[in-house]
Protein backbone atom coordinates (compact mmCIF):
# COMPACT_ATOMS: atom_id res chain seq x y z
CA UNK A 1 0.00 0.00 0.00
CA UNK A 2 1.45 3.39 -0.99
CA UNK A 3 2.06 5.56 2.05
CA UNK A 4 4.21 8.39 3.31
CA UNK A 5 5.52 9.49 6.67
CA UNK A 6 3.93 12.43 8.46
CA UNK A 7 5.33 14.03 11.60
CA UNK A 8 3.56 16.19 14.18
CA UNK A 9 5.77 18.61 16.12
CA UNK A 10 4.23 19.89 19.35
CA UNK A 11 5.88 22.17 21.91
CA UNK A 12 4.07 20.17 24.62
CA UNK A 13 1.27 17.62 24.81
CA UNK A 14 -2.28 18.93 24.95
CA UNK A 15 -3.57 19.06 28.48
CA UNK A 16 -6.37 20.26 30.72
CA UNK A 17 -4.99 22.23 33.64
CA UNK A 18 -7.15 22.21 36.78
CA UNK A 19 -7.57 25.38 38.79
CA UNK A 20 -10.06 28.03 39.71
CA UNK A 21 -10.73 28.34 35.97
CA UNK A 22 -9.87 25.08 34.14
CA UNK A 23 -7.81 25.63 30.99
CA UNK A 24 -7.82 23.27 28.00
CA UNK A 25 -4.54 23.80 26.15
CA UNK A 26 -4.64 22.20 22.68
CA UNK A 27 -1.12 22.05 21.30
CA UNK A 28 -0.82 22.79 17.57
CA UNK A 29 1.58 21.22 15.13
CA UNK A 30 3.50 23.18 12.54
CA UNK A 31 6.35 21.50 10.60
CA UNK A 32 7.75 24.98 9.89
CA UNK A 33 8.17 25.62 13.62
CA UNK A 34 5.81 28.60 13.90
CA UNK A 35 3.24 26.86 16.15
CA UNK A 36 0.36 29.22 15.42
CA UNK A 37 -1.68 30.64 18.26
CA UNK A 38 -5.23 30.50 16.92
CA UNK A 39 -7.51 31.17 19.83
CA UNK A 40 -7.90 31.79 23.53
CA UNK A 41 -11.21 32.40 25.25
CA UNK A 42 -13.97 31.10 27.50
CA UNK A 43 -16.34 28.42 26.24
CA UNK A 44 -20.01 29.19 26.87
CA UNK A 45 -20.99 25.51 27.29
CA UNK A 46 -17.89 23.79 28.70
CA UNK A 47 -19.37 20.34 29.29
CA UNK A 48 -20.95 20.10 25.84
CA UNK A 49 -17.79 21.33 24.14
CA UNK A 50 -15.78 18.69 26.02
CA UNK A 51 -18.21 15.97 24.93
CA UNK A 52 -18.03 17.06 21.28
CA UNK A 53 -14.23 17.11 21.29
CA UNK A 54 -14.27 13.66 22.90
CA UNK A 55 -16.47 12.43 20.03
CA UNK A 56 -13.83 13.60 17.55
CA UNK A 57 -11.23 11.71 19.55
CA UNK A 58 -13.38 8.55 19.48
CA UNK A 59 -13.83 8.54 15.68
CA UNK A 60 -10.18 9.36 14.96
CA UNK A 61 -9.13 6.45 17.15
CA UNK A 62 -11.66 4.02 15.69
CA UNK A 63 -11.39 1.32 13.05
CA UNK A 64 -14.72 -0.13 11.90
CA UNK A 65 -13.14 -2.50 9.38
CA UNK A 66 -9.78 -4.26 9.53
CA UNK A 67 -8.35 -5.66 6.28
CA UNK A 68 -5.71 -8.36 6.40
CA UNK A 69 -2.89 -5.98 5.38
CA UNK A 70 -3.88 -3.18 7.76
CA UNK A 71 -1.73 -0.32 9.00
CA UNK A 72 -4.05 0.18 11.96
CA UNK A 73 -1.32 0.49 14.56
CA UNK A 74 0.18 3.59 12.94
CA UNK A 75 -3.08 5.13 11.81
CA UNK A 76 -4.53 5.10 15.30
CA UNK A 77 -2.21 8.00 16.08
CA UNK A 78 -3.49 10.32 13.34
CA UNK A 79 -4.39 13.60 15.07
CA UNK A 80 -7.43 15.75 14.19
CA UNK A 81 -7.24 18.97 12.22
CA UNK A 82 -8.38 22.38 13.48
CA UNK A 83 -9.32 25.25 11.15
CA UNK A 84 -9.54 28.82 12.40
CA UNK A 85 -11.07 31.55 10.28
CA UNK A 86 -14.12 33.71 9.84
CA UNK A 87 -14.89 33.63 13.54
CA UNK A 88 -15.24 29.83 13.59
CA UNK A 89 -13.28 26.94 14.96
CA UNK A 90 -13.67 23.61 13.18
CA UNK A 91 -12.25 20.31 14.43
CA UNK A 92 -12.30 17.48 11.88
CA UNK A 93 -11.00 13.95 11.83
CA UNK A 94 -11.20 10.70 9.93
CA UNK A 95 -11.34 7.12 11.14
CA UNK A 96 -8.36 4.95 10.33
CA UNK A 97 -10.55 2.61 8.24
CA UNK A 98 -11.59 5.57 6.01
CA UNK A 99 -15.32 4.97 6.50
CA UNK A 100 -16.26 7.70 9.01
CA UNK A 101 -15.57 11.44 9.01
CA UNK A 102 -16.40 13.76 11.91
CA UNK A 103 -16.32 17.52 12.30
CA UNK A 104 -17.24 19.83 15.19
CA UNK A 105 -18.05 23.43 14.29
CA UNK A 106 -17.83 26.05 17.04
CA UNK A 107 -19.70 29.14 15.86
CA UNK A 108 -19.12 32.63 17.33
CA UNK A 109 -21.84 32.10 19.94
CA UNK A 110 -19.96 29.13 21.38
CA UNK A 111 -17.18 31.17 22.93
CA UNK A 112 -16.31 34.48 24.52
CA UNK A 113 -12.92 35.38 23.14
CA UNK A 114 -11.00 36.18 19.98
CA UNK A 115 -10.02 34.00 17.06
CA UNK A 116 -6.61 35.59 16.68
CA UNK A 117 -5.21 33.43 13.91
CA UNK A 118 -6.27 32.05 10.53
CA UNK A 119 -5.12 28.72 9.25
CA UNK A 120 -5.25 24.96 9.61
CA UNK A 121 -3.06 22.62 11.58
CA UNK A 122 -3.11 19.38 13.53
CA UNK A 123 -3.90 19.42 17.24
CA UNK A 124 -2.59 16.93 19.77
CA UNK A 125 -5.42 14.69 21.02
CA UNK A 126 -4.05 12.24 23.55
CA UNK A 127 -5.58 9.74 25.97
CA UNK A 128 -4.84 11.73 29.18
CA UNK A 129 -6.50 14.79 27.65
CA UNK A 130 -9.62 12.79 26.81
CA UNK A 131 -9.75 11.46 30.36
CA UNK A 132 -9.54 15.03 31.62
CA UNK A 133 -12.33 16.14 29.27
CA UNK A 134 -14.64 13.61 30.90
CA UNK A 135 -14.31 15.53 34.17
CA UNK A 136 -15.22 18.97 32.80
CA UNK A 137 -18.26 20.57 34.49
CA UNK A 138 -20.26 23.62 33.47
CA UNK A 139 -20.02 25.06 36.98
CA UNK A 140 -16.23 25.23 36.75
CA UNK A 141 -16.12 26.96 33.35
CA UNK A 142 -13.45 26.24 30.75
CA UNK A 143 -10.81 28.35 29.01
CA UNK A 144 -9.86 27.03 25.57
CA UNK A 145 -6.41 27.86 24.20
CA UNK A 146 -5.34 26.58 20.78
CA UNK A 147 -1.61 26.93 20.21
CA UNK A 148 1.21 28.09 22.44
CA UNK A 149 1.49 31.55 23.97
CA UNK A 150 4.09 33.99 22.68
CA UNK A 151 6.04 34.08 25.96
CA UNK A 152 6.57 30.35 25.86
CA UNK A 153 7.69 30.53 22.24
CA UNK A 154 10.22 33.25 23.04
CA UNK A 155 11.61 31.43 26.04
CA UNK A 156 12.81 28.55 23.91
CA UNK A 157 12.63 26.25 26.94
CA UNK A 158 9.86 23.95 25.71
CA UNK A 159 10.77 20.48 24.48
CA UNK A 160 9.35 19.39 21.12
CA UNK A 161 6.97 16.46 21.35
CA UNK A 162 7.13 14.60 18.05
CA UNK A 163 4.72 11.99 16.72
CA UNK A 164 5.47 10.09 13.54
CA UNK A 165 2.68 8.31 11.70
CA UNK A 166 2.31 6.46 8.44
CA UNK A 167 -0.49 7.92 6.32
CA UNK A 168 -1.43 5.67 3.38
CA UNK A 169 -2.68 7.50 0.30
CA UNK A 170 -5.97 5.66 0.86
CA UNK A 171 -6.44 7.63 4.10
CA UNK A 172 -5.59 10.93 2.40
CA UNK A 173 -7.88 10.17 -0.54
CA UNK A 174 -10.71 9.45 1.88
CA UNK A 175 -10.22 12.74 3.72
CA UNK A 176 -10.46 14.53 0.38
CA UNK A 177 -13.25 12.51 -1.24
CA UNK A 178 -15.64 12.92 1.70
CA UNK A 179 -15.86 16.65 0.94
CA UNK A 180 -17.06 15.95 -2.60
CA UNK A 181 -19.58 13.40 -1.37
CA UNK A 182 -21.09 15.87 1.09
CA UNK A 183 -21.47 18.42 -1.71
CA UNK A 184 -23.76 15.94 -3.50
CA UNK A 185 -26.05 15.33 -0.52
CA UNK A 186 -29.61 16.49 0.09
CA UNK A 187 -31.65 16.67 3.29
CA UNK A 188 -33.59 13.45 3.80
CA UNK A 189 -34.73 13.26 7.42
CA UNK A 190 -35.08 15.55 10.42
CA UNK A 191 -36.05 14.94 14.04
CA UNK A 192 -35.88 16.71 17.35
CA UNK A 193 -33.07 15.63 19.64
CA UNK A 194 -35.26 13.67 22.07
CA UNK A 195 -37.11 11.92 19.22
CA UNK A 196 -33.78 10.95 17.69
CA UNK A 197 -32.60 9.62 21.06
CA UNK A 198 -35.58 7.25 21.25
CA UNK A 199 -34.73 6.01 17.77
CA UNK A 200 -31.04 5.46 18.59
CA UNK A 201 -31.94 3.48 21.69
CA UNK A 202 -33.99 1.13 19.50
CA UNK A 203 -31.01 0.28 17.28
CA UNK A 204 -29.26 -3.05 17.84
CA UNK A 205 -26.28 -2.72 20.17
CA UNK A 206 -24.02 -4.61 17.80
CA UNK A 207 -24.13 -4.65 14.03
CA UNK A 208 -23.49 -8.26 13.08
CA UNK A 209 -25.52 -8.45 9.89
CA UNK A 210 -24.18 -7.46 6.48
CA UNK A 211 -27.70 -6.49 5.43
CA UNK A 212 -27.99 -2.69 5.27
CA UNK A 213 -30.78 -0.88 7.07
CA UNK A 214 -32.88 1.99 5.76
CA UNK A 215 -33.78 4.76 8.18
CA UNK A 216 -37.16 6.29 7.34
CA UNK A 217 -39.46 8.86 8.90
CA UNK A 218 -43.13 8.55 9.76
CA UNK A 219 -45.88 9.63 12.16
CA UNK A 220 -44.19 7.71 14.95
CA UNK A 221 -40.75 9.21 14.27
CA UNK A 222 -37.65 7.58 12.81
CA UNK A 223 -37.54 3.82 12.34
CA UNK A 224 -35.53 1.23 10.39
CA UNK A 225 -36.48 -1.23 7.69
CA UNK A 226 -34.55 -3.73 5.57
CA UNK A 227 -36.49 -2.66 2.47
CA UNK A 228 -35.00 0.02 0.23
CA UNK A 229 -36.89 3.31 0.58
CA UNK A 230 -36.43 6.22 -1.82
CA UNK A 231 -37.17 8.74 0.95
CA UNK A 232 -35.00 6.96 3.52
CA UNK A 233 -31.29 6.81 4.23
CA UNK A 234 -29.22 3.67 3.77
CA UNK A 235 -26.91 2.70 6.65
CA UNK A 236 -24.51 -0.22 6.96
CA UNK A 237 -23.00 -1.04 10.36
CA UNK A 238 -24.92 1.12 12.82
CA UNK A 239 -22.05 0.88 15.32
CA UNK A 240 -20.58 3.93 13.58
CA UNK A 241 -23.57 5.96 14.80
CA UNK A 242 -23.01 5.11 18.45
CA UNK A 243 -20.79 8.14 18.97
CA UNK A 244 -23.88 10.34 18.55
CA UNK A 245 -26.15 8.70 21.14
CA UNK A 246 -24.74 10.28 24.34
CA UNK A 247 -24.93 13.72 22.69
CA UNK A 248 -28.59 13.55 21.64
CA UNK A 249 -30.14 14.65 24.99
CA UNK A 250 -28.51 18.07 24.51
CA UNK A 251 -29.12 18.35 20.74
CA UNK A 252 -31.82 20.62 19.38
CA UNK A 253 -32.23 18.48 16.29
CA UNK A 254 -30.81 15.70 14.14
CA UNK A 255 -30.75 16.21 10.37
CA UNK A 256 -29.74 13.41 8.02
CA UNK A 257 -28.42 13.97 4.50
CA UNK A 258 -27.66 11.50 1.70
CA UNK A 259 -26.63 11.53 -1.94
CA UNK A 260 -29.02 10.39 -4.66
CA UNK A 261 -27.27 7.03 -5.13
CA UNK A 262 -27.34 6.34 -1.36
CA UNK A 263 -23.60 5.78 -1.32
CA UNK A 264 -23.00 7.99 1.73
CA UNK A 265 -24.86 9.80 4.49
CA UNK A 266 -24.21 12.69 6.87
CA UNK A 267 -25.74 12.97 10.35
CA UNK A 268 -25.77 16.49 11.76
CA UNK A 269 -26.51 17.35 15.39
CA UNK A 270 -27.40 20.99 15.98
CA UNK A 271 -26.70 22.48 19.41
CA UNK A 272 -27.35 26.10 18.48
CA UNK A 273 -23.88 27.60 18.73
CA UNK A 274 -22.14 24.31 17.91
CA UNK A 275 -22.70 21.51 15.39
CA UNK A 276 -21.41 18.00 14.93
CA UNK A 277 -21.32 16.34 11.52
CA UNK A 278 -20.72 12.60 11.09
CA UNK A 279 -20.38 11.35 7.50
CA UNK A 280 -20.50 7.60 6.77
CA UNK A 281 -19.55 5.69 3.65
CA UNK A 282 -21.90 3.10 2.16
CA UNK A 283 -19.86 0.21 3.58
CA UNK A 284 -17.14 0.09 6.21
CA UNK A 285 -14.91 -1.96 3.93
CA UNK A 286 -15.22 0.56 1.10
CA UNK A 287 -14.47 3.75 2.94
CA UNK A 288 -14.39 7.01 1.01
CA UNK A 289 -10.93 6.55 -0.49
CA UNK A 290 -11.77 5.04 -3.88
CA UNK A 291 -15.00 6.79 -4.71
CA UNK A 292 -13.79 9.23 -7.38
CA UNK A 293 -16.75 11.58 -7.10
CA UNK A 294 -14.77 14.60 -8.31
CA UNK A 295 -12.82 12.95 -11.13
CA UNK A 296 -14.89 14.65 -13.85
CA UNK A 297 -14.28 18.07 -12.33
CA UNK A 298 -10.57 17.27 -12.00
CA UNK A 299 -10.41 16.14 -15.62
CA UNK A 300 -11.99 19.40 -16.77
CA UNK A 301 -9.67 21.49 -14.61
CA UNK A 302 -6.46 20.82 -16.54
CA UNK A 303 -6.48 24.17 -18.39
CA UNK A 304 -9.39 25.76 -16.57
CA UNK A 305 -8.84 29.47 -15.92
CA UNK A 306 -11.91 29.50 -13.68
CA UNK A 307 -10.12 27.27 -11.16
CA UNK A 308 -7.27 29.78 -10.80
CA UNK A 309 -9.74 32.64 -10.40
CA UNK A 310 -11.73 30.90 -7.68
CA UNK A 311 -8.59 29.76 -5.87
CA UNK A 312 -7.34 33.35 -5.80
CA UNK A 313 -10.46 34.30 -3.80
CA UNK A 314 -9.68 31.97 -0.89
CA UNK A 315 -9.15 33.96 2.30
CA UNK A 316 -10.15 31.53 5.07
CA UNK A 317 -13.85 32.24 4.50
CA UNK A 318 -16.27 30.12 6.56
CA UNK A 319 -18.76 30.19 3.69
CA UNK A 320 -17.94 30.11 -0.04
CA UNK A 321 -21.12 30.99 -1.95
CA UNK A 322 -20.82 29.73 -5.53
CA UNK A 323 -23.56 32.07 -6.79
CA UNK A 324 -21.84 35.11 -5.30
CA UNK A 325 -18.43 34.01 -6.61
CA UNK A 326 -19.89 33.48 -10.07
CA UNK A 327 -21.25 37.04 -10.13
CA UNK A 328 -18.06 38.59 -8.78
CA UNK A 329 -15.81 36.69 -11.21
CA UNK A 330 -18.16 36.91 -14.21
CA UNK A 331 -18.25 33.11 -14.51
CA UNK A 332 -21.00 30.58 -15.00
CA UNK A 333 -22.10 28.96 -11.75
CA UNK A 334 -21.30 25.40 -12.98
CA UNK A 335 -17.72 26.58 -13.57
CA UNK A 336 -17.47 27.80 -9.98
CA UNK A 337 -19.09 24.61 -8.65
CA UNK A 338 -16.52 22.56 -10.56
CA UNK A 339 -13.68 24.71 -9.24
CA UNK A 340 -14.86 24.36 -5.64
CA UNK A 341 -15.19 20.60 -6.05
CA UNK A 342 -11.61 20.44 -7.34
CA UNK A 343 -10.39 22.58 -4.44
CA UNK A 344 -12.20 20.22 -2.07
CA UNK A 345 -10.42 17.12 -3.38
CA UNK A 346 -7.15 19.07 -3.44
CA UNK A 347 -7.27 19.67 0.31
CA UNK A 348 -7.96 23.41 -0.02
CA UNK A 349 -11.62 23.41 1.03
CA UNK A 350 -13.97 21.51 3.30
CA UNK A 351 -17.72 21.17 2.85
CA UNK A 352 -20.35 22.08 5.43
CA UNK A 353 -23.42 20.04 4.52
CA UNK A 354 -25.57 21.89 7.07
CA UNK A 355 -24.90 25.21 5.36
CA UNK A 356 -24.67 23.79 1.85
CA UNK A 357 -21.35 25.45 1.07
CA UNK A 358 -17.60 24.96 1.02
CA UNK A 359 -15.26 26.71 3.45
CA UNK A 360 -11.58 27.49 2.97
CA UNK A 361 -8.96 25.47 4.77
CA UNK A 362 -5.70 23.78 3.80
CA UNK A 363 -5.14 20.25 5.06
CA UNK A 364 -1.76 20.08 6.83
CA UNK A 365 -0.51 17.05 4.89
CA UNK A 366 1.75 16.58 1.89
CA UNK A 367 -0.76 16.75 -0.97
CA UNK A 368 1.74 17.10 -3.81
CA UNK A 369 1.12 13.56 -5.04
CA UNK A 370 -2.18 14.48 -6.67
CA UNK A 371 -1.84 12.06 -9.56
CA UNK A 372 -0.99 9.19 -7.20
CA UNK A 373 -4.14 9.95 -5.21
CA UNK A 374 -6.24 9.79 -8.40
CA UNK A 375 -4.89 6.91 -10.53
CA UNK A 376 -8.00 6.85 -12.77
CA UNK A 377 -7.43 10.50 -13.59
CA UNK A 378 -3.80 9.85 -14.53
CA UNK A 379 -4.87 6.85 -16.60
CA UNK A 380 -7.51 8.84 -18.49
CA UNK A 381 -5.07 11.63 -19.32
CA UNK A 382 -2.55 9.07 -20.56
CA UNK A 383 -5.20 7.55 -22.85
CA UNK A 384 -6.07 10.96 -24.31
CA UNK A 385 -2.41 11.89 -24.80
CA UNK A 386 -1.75 8.55 -26.52
CA UNK A 387 -4.63 9.08 -28.96
CA UNK A 388 -6.34 5.94 -27.68
CA UNK A 389 -9.84 7.46 -27.93
CA UNK A 390 -11.84 7.32 -31.16
CA UNK A 391 -15.17 9.13 -31.21
CA UNK A 392 -17.76 7.14 -33.11
CA UNK A 393 -20.80 9.33 -32.51
CA UNK A 394 -21.40 12.73 -30.94
CA UNK A 395 -25.00 12.43 -29.72
CA UNK A 396 -25.63 10.16 -28.02
CA UNK A 397 -21.93 9.89 -27.29
CA UNK A 398 -20.22 6.70 -28.37
CA UNK A 399 -16.49 6.02 -28.45
CA UNK A 400 -13.94 3.25 -28.57
CA UNK A 401 -10.98 3.38 -26.19
CA UNK A 402 -7.92 1.23 -26.79
CA UNK A 403 -6.73 -0.30 -23.53
CA UNK A 404 -3.46 -2.14 -22.98
CA UNK A 405 -4.75 -5.28 -24.70
CA UNK A 406 -8.51 -4.80 -25.20
CA UNK A 407 -10.66 -2.33 -27.11
CA UNK A 408 -13.35 -0.91 -24.79
CA UNK A 409 -16.61 0.66 -25.89
CA UNK A 410 -18.09 3.69 -24.12
CA UNK A 411 -21.74 4.48 -24.85
CA UNK A 412 -24.33 6.94 -23.57
CA UNK A 413 -27.36 5.08 -22.24
CA UNK A 414 -30.23 6.95 -20.63
CA UNK A 415 -28.10 10.05 -20.16
CA UNK A 416 -25.29 8.12 -18.44
CA UNK A 417 -22.04 6.82 -19.91
CA UNK A 418 -21.37 3.09 -19.57
CA UNK A 419 -18.23 1.13 -20.42
CA UNK A 420 -17.46 -2.47 -21.30
CA UNK A 421 -14.39 -2.62 -19.03
CA UNK A 422 -14.37 -4.99 -15.99
CA UNK A 423 -14.03 -2.07 -13.54
CA UNK A 424 -17.26 -0.47 -14.73
CA UNK A 425 -18.95 -3.86 -14.82
CA UNK A 426 -18.09 -4.37 -11.16
CA UNK A 427 -19.09 -0.94 -9.84
CA UNK A 428 -21.70 0.23 -12.38
CA UNK A 429 -20.69 3.86 -12.00
CA UNK A 430 -21.40 3.98 -8.27
CA UNK A 431 -17.76 4.72 -7.46
CA UNK A 432 -17.25 7.43 -10.04
CA UNK A 433 -16.36 7.01 -13.73
CA UNK A 434 -13.75 4.58 -15.03
CA UNK A 435 -10.71 5.93 -16.85
CA UNK A 436 -12.19 5.03 -20.26
CA UNK A 437 -15.34 7.09 -19.61
CA UNK A 438 -13.21 9.99 -18.40
CA UNK A 439 -11.03 9.78 -21.50
CA UNK A 440 -14.05 9.62 -23.83
CA UNK A 441 -15.63 12.65 -22.18
CA UNK A 442 -12.39 14.59 -22.42
CA UNK A 443 -11.94 13.75 -26.11
CA UNK A 444 -15.55 14.71 -26.81
CA UNK A 445 -15.09 18.03 -25.02
CA UNK A 446 -11.86 18.76 -26.92
CA UNK A 447 -13.49 18.08 -30.27
CA UNK A 448 -16.52 20.22 -29.38
CA UNK A 449 -14.26 23.14 -28.43
CA UNK A 450 -12.35 22.85 -31.75
CA UNK A 451 -15.54 22.96 -33.81
CA UNK A 452 -17.27 25.76 -31.86
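^ Assign residues to that structure.
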Amino acid sequence: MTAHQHAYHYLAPSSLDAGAQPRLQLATSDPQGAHPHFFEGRLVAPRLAAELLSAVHVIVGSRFFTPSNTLARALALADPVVTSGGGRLRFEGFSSCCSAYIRVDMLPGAYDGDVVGKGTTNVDFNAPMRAALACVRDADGLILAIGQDALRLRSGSADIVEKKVTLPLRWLRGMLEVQSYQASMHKKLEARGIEALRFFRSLPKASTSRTPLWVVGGPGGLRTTTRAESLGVRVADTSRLRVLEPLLPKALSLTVYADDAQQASAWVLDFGSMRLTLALSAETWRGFSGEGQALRALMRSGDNAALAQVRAQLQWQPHLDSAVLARELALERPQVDDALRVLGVSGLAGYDVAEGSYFHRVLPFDLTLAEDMHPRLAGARALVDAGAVRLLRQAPLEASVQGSAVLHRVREVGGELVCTCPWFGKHQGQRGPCKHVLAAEAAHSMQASRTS
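The radius of gyration is 23 Å.
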